[in-house]
Amino acid sequence: MAINLQKGQREAINAPKFTIGLGWDTNSSSTGAAFDLDASVFIMGDNKKILADEYFVFYNNAKSPDGAVEHTGDNLTGDGDGDDEQIKIDLSNISPQATEICVVVTIHEAESRRQNFGQVRNSFIRVFDSATNTDILKYELEEDFSIETAVEFGRIYKRNNEWKFEAVGAGMKGGLQDYLNKYN
């Protein structure tokens, strides 16, 4: 049975291999343009900075150099039920310098399309066992992000040699560039 998290809640992940599923629905009629939401992963060290450029995983850099994080592909519309994008994680292969994995979702070309997360609904992040397709935990974003174009859904971090998940749900107005500035 999956644990449903609240914002700020933390939970241990007792599985070395799992998949992160991200999902959302959009109200495309509000701007006339289709929504293209993109999941990105920042693999960081103790200094809260990306280990190297190659440890920024997204649709154009689908796999981290250590092979521990793999983006399965870009969903351009978010149509349909279930996960819209997925990221596979294998903590047994992760770089020893890695202590945090930050999962961010951004709206592609949000400014030119006049889109924001206030027009996105039913957003969630879930962590599930890939072998059994069983949810380990889930966090549903319930906040109204009326001006934000990027949201940190959650983070996986290492404390006392144990990996945990934190439900973050924090938005930024400057899109992906804000997170690149923060973590570089």
From TrEMBL:
Record keyword Transcription regulation present: no
Record keywords, A-Z: Tellurium resistance
Keyword Magnesium included in the entry's annotation: no
InterPro entries: Stress/Tellurium_Resist, TerD
Residues of the TerD domain: 1-183
Superkingdom of this protein's organism: Bacteria
One Pfam family per UniProt: TerD
Family: Belongs to the CAPAB/TerDEXZ family.
Protein known as: TerD family protein
Protein's organism: Mucilaginibacter antarcticus
Classification of source organism: Bacteria, Pseudomonadati, Bacteroidota, Sphingobacteriia, Sphingobacteriales
